[in-house]
Amino acid sequence: MRSTRTVQAVAVPAAPSFADSAEFWKHLAESYGFRKIGEPLPGNVTLKDILDTLPKRVFEIDNVKAWKAVLKTVTSYALGLFMISKAPWYLLPFAWAWTGTAATGVFVIGHDCAHKTFSKNKLVEDIVGTLAFLPLIYPYEPWRFKHDWHHARTNMLVEDTAWHPVREEEFDSSPVLRKAIIFGYGPFRPWMSIAHWLIWHFDLKKFRPNQIQRVKISWACVFGFMAIGWPLIIYKAGIMGWIKFWLMPWLGYHFCMSTFTMMHHTAPHIPFKSSDEWNAAQAQLNGTIHCDYPCWIEILCHDINVHIPHHVSARIPHYNLRVAHESLQENWGKYMNEATWNCVW
């Protein structure tokens, strides 16, 4: 007979694995240079659950605040052009940096118009948005169509129109393409939005038939600005004046755009998922990054880097983003990613 023993079952709380612990997320944040990395959002949380916690006032459009932002942007951009005209050559980079950042503020005005958060008058929004995008040589309607697509498919592996990872088979498909990708995501990365601007906004095949007419109107506006504005600049200031007053600030704008856009959704821990695995709440709250920049950048760019509430709802005007962010921190803070402009990843 084999001897037996009675084994008493004792309920002992299972210790969480390191990957589920607060220490793990803190360690991960430190390794990336983030202030905080959010824990994974539970799969049963919906975007509506998150939206329902936001105060209603954050969705309200205030015409006075909207036009104050326009005045601030026009003033800061004009100041930048004045600095360029007066600065000695060794101070020109600082003047270009200011003016390029102010031009990003011009873009944010158009961005609000595209999201229908600038004015209750939609015609006013289309006019202001088109005018705001002209100095940047951005066709307003094509950009709006593709940006709406980005919001509807944020961090989808293939469908997202913003930055997304390069598939392994694509990376290995051609030595030339591989070198271009390495260069693009390496030394050319601060200006990758120029390639994005060309690829996504000037090809009729990328738009639906019911969008073509509005796309062509936007193209006509942009090409008209180039045909009239550029020769006027050259006539008044010469080719070097065109480079000083338009090209260099435009490159500064694209530096900001590339940096901001890469930072908003791209980090080693943020997954890009196929459409059948994609979850809207996880992508918009858990897969979007809030980043703090120096105060002058935040002011000139209208808080566009307070980006998580903008992705939870694109119907929040820029001047309400900080209030919305505070509400999200209160209710969903442990799932949110927060970084600073000098993070090391």
Automatic annotation (TrEMBL):
The keyword Hydrolase applies. SUPFAM superfamilies: Acid proteases (SSF50630). Keywords: Hydrolase, Protease. The keyword ATP-binding does not apply. One of its GO terms (biological process) is proteolysis. GO terms for molecular function: peptidase activity. InterPro entries: Peptidase_aspartic_dom_sf (IPR021109), Plant_Aspart_Prot_A1 (IPR051708), TAXi_N (IPR032861). Pfam families: TAXi_N. PANTHER family: ASPARTYL PROTEASE FAMILY PROTEIN, PUTATIVE-RELATED, OS07G0603500 PROTEIN-RELATED. Belongs to the peptidase A1 family. This is Xylanase inhibitor N-terminal domain-containing protein. It comes from Populus trichocarpa (Western balsam poplar).
